[in-house]
Structure formats: C-alpha cells, structure tokens
Amino acid sequence: MLQQRTLKTITRAVGMGLHSGQRVEMTLRPAQPDTGIVFRRVDLPEPVDIPVTAQSVSDTRMATTIATGSAKVHTIEHLMSALCGLGIDNLYIDITAEEVPILDGSSSSFVFLLQSAGVEVQNAPRRFIRVLKPVEVREGEGEKLKWARFDPYHGFKLRFEIDFSHPAVDSTGQSVEFDLGAGNYPRDIARARTFGFTKDVEMLRNNGLALGGGLDNAIVMDDYKVLNSDGLRYDDEFAKHKILDAMGDLYVIGKPLLAGYSAFRSGHGMNNQLLRALLADPTAWEEVSFDSDRKAPAGFAQLAKAW
Questions:
Q1: Taking the model in full, what pTM does it have?
Q2: CA dihedral over 138, 140, 142, 145, signed as positive or negative
Q3: Which of 19, 74, 241, 268 is catalytic?
Q4: Degrees, nearest 5: CA angle 182-270-96
C-alpha cells in the first residue's frame, strides 16, 4: 500500500516575512493520518487552526494567503511546495505571525528542515486526486493572455512558460518541465528563488509589500541585469521558480494530484482558479489510493525513500 507520511520529529525555523518584514517563529509538528496540512496561529489570544484547502485561500495578490475568519497566514507557497516535493501529507505548522518566513527565497531551507526531521510512514493509504479530463482557465487576449490547464496523467508533471521581456530573463530558459515521479525535487526545483525588479520595489513597499525582501532572499534585477553577486543557481531559475510556486499553490487542494499541469504566464490567483474549476466538476476528478506500489505512478513510492 502506498502510505501517508508525516515527520518523525518536531523541527523549527525563525525568519522574516517577505512582505510584512515581521520576525516569525515556525514549528513543524507531526500529525495523525488524514489530518492534512494545518497552520496554527499560536500568537493570537486563542490559537486558531487554519486547515489548508483550495477554499481556504483568501488572497492571491503577490502570494498565496489562507484564512479562517479573521485569522490569516500569508505566503505559504514555498513551504507547501517543499511538502509536495517531499511527499508529506500530514503536518501541524505552529506560527507566531501572519506570514511564513521567506528564509532564502526558495524552498531549499524548508527541504532541509523536513529532511532533518525525517519522515514517518503512517498506517493509512495515501489518497490522490486523479484528473479524469482536461480542465482549463484562461484570462485576457493577445499580449495579455494567460492560462493554466490540467490534463489526465498517471503521475504529476508540470510545464510552465514565462514571458518576461528583460535581458536577464531572455538569456535563460523561458519554459521548464518537471515530472515529480521521475525528477529530483530537492536538486532540480527547490533552490529556485523568487525574483523581482528594482523598479517595482518602491511601489510594492508603498503598498505594504516586500518589506522584508532583499538580495539575500530574492533574485533582484535592474533594467539590464541580475544584481545578486552570486548570480543564478540554475540557468533557468526564473522559470523553475514558477514551477516551485505552482507546486505549492496546487498542493493546497489537500491531497497529491495525479495530473499534467501546464501554464502560460499563470500566477497564484489563476492556479487557485484552476483548482476550484476542477473541484466544481465532479466528472473531472476522482479520489484514488494504491494498494500496491506497482500500481502507483513510477517514482511516487520512492519519494520518501529518497531522503
């Protein structure tokens, strides 16, 4: 049986929120089977649990935010991406502020935290959402066109195409494809950092965003070049970060997906629209589990063993 997974031990991180600039402590704790991923705001007068679901996403401007009532957690996508990439199903995340720490701007620090805690295989079947027919969302036309799409696929494969007219981006790959079962998430995707442009920084900060951003947790570009002294971690780091974000955005559905995902200029909002469009059509998906590793998609039984 392909089984659910949580962590063996508690692990912690301290950092700063990318947009809020607030110091935040985060504690990752093992959870029972079928718990899912649950954030817990422990800084409030009464702690509030915020289960991660497609419906709990309340805001997608510049990041993915989830909420229960007035309690929110911003910028969950990099941590959710690491949980997806390493195959973690159940986890409590205690957090002392309203934003997940940005750390180095990628998922690699979260991968390190999870790997250091170890994986616990649980006595319960891992449940997947299998896409049965194409589902697509589109917006705009011509130069403003963007779209995201699911197709049936026995595994989880993502293809993302970006479209930035900038010398530093043009010189790298504008599209990337990654297959979770065949690839190596920590090596191939997790180190790709978020990125931004100096011309946008003043506007963002005037709107209370990017207050904790800088060269130590993002790729920053002026009109011509990358300003980080260490350059890029991957030749195609910009497109790979969009894959990283998409994996985190899509894992909020609450279970691993069996689907082919493809997108052009998509973002947090469109990724969530795609999830909601899928869930709104009961004929487009089904929930499945595998009583034998041989019946599961190639590579999925090896995710935890790769640690």
A1: 0.94
A2: negative
A3: 268
A4: 85
